[in-house]
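Quick one, probably user error.
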């Protein structure tokens, strides 16, 4: 689920923020809780085809994704034999050796190409573990290619840069994945990923949007089976906190978790701070600190 903002307003409360539940095919108004099922878009083709040949004619070409291997996948010459496995005669063997030398020159002997192909494999692995869409994979590879072009990776670990590029792609696309999520998927430490991420942002002049705590609410609430009404109240609390400038400089996951805990208490739903903190990937200390700030602000 994710929070989306649309120009069309809710029929009941005129709210524009909605929670998109892709699993159940529903769009829920974040303000009043109205559930709609008739606004879910069909992202399939607008044309129909009844045979493979018709489908091939009507499909439109798309650009090659950044996640494609640089130079394609390579084959190898069989050692001194033809395609059927028969040994070559001396004349054929001499020709085979010339062809193999030429073939090796055209392959990925270049360090940068080998580096990029290894990074492509790691991006695929990390993004699959994080259940990220193809667009995030391509964006992460685009960022990694820029870092490679600027020679930022020399003397550093490829895995750290891949993990940082995946995190940057998520941040830039407003996909809720935390540093701890990326760390768990990649096996790299949060400290190393964070340091490399800052290097990428600084060196490549990446413009990253400020994380909105609201986008973390559906993910945390969904993992604990918290109802939509409590989610709606949480988002409303975060909206009020934003109006009072309470979100500036604060970890968005901590603010989202604190607001969710307040909403659970308000709705008399039993939920411990430890459960919420574990689901969000933060410490209970951070949760309590943000909770005190929100309670103090809303007690006025």
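Nope, works fine. Designed sequence:
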């Amino acid at each position: 689920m994710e929070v989306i903002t649309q120009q069309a307003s809710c029929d009941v409360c005129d709210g524009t923020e909605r929670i998109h539940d892709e699993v159940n095919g529903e769009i829920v108004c974040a303000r009043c809780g109205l559930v709609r099922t008739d606004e879910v878009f069909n992202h399939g083709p607008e044309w129909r085809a009844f045979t493979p040949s018709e489908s091939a004619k009507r499909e439109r070409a798309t650009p090659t994704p950044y996640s494609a291997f640089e130079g394609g996948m390579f084959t190898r010459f069989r050692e001194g034999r033809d395609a059927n496995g028969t040994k070559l005669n001396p004349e054929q063997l001499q020709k085979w050796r010339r062809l193999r030398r030429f073939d090796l020159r055209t392959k990925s002997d270049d360090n940068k190409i080998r580096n990029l192909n290894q990074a492509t494999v790691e991006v695929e692995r990390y993004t699959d573990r994080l259940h990220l869409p193809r667009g995030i994979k391509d964006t992460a590879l685009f960022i990694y290619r820029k870092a490679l072009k600027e020679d930022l990776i020399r003397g550093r670990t490829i895995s750290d840069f891949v993990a940082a590029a995946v995190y940057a792609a998520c941040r830039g696309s407003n996909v809720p994945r935390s540093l701890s999520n990326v760390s768990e998927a990649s096996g790299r430490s949060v400290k190393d990923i964070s340091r490399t991420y800052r290097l990428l942002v600084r060196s490549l002049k990446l413009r990253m949007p400020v994380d909105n705590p609201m986008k973390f609410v559906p993910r945390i609430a969904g993992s604990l089976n918290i109802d939509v009404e409590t989610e709606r109240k949480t988002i409303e609390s975060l909206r009020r906190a934003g109006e009072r400038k309470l979100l500036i400089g604060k970890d968005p996951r901590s603010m989202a978790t604190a607001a969710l805990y307040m909403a659970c208490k308000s709705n008399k739903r039993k939920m411990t701070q430890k459960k919420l903190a574990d689901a969000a990937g933060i410490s209970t200390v951070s949760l309590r600190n943000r909770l005190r700030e929100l309670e103090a602000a809303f007690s006025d």
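Confidence is low (pLDDT under 50) at residues 38-43.
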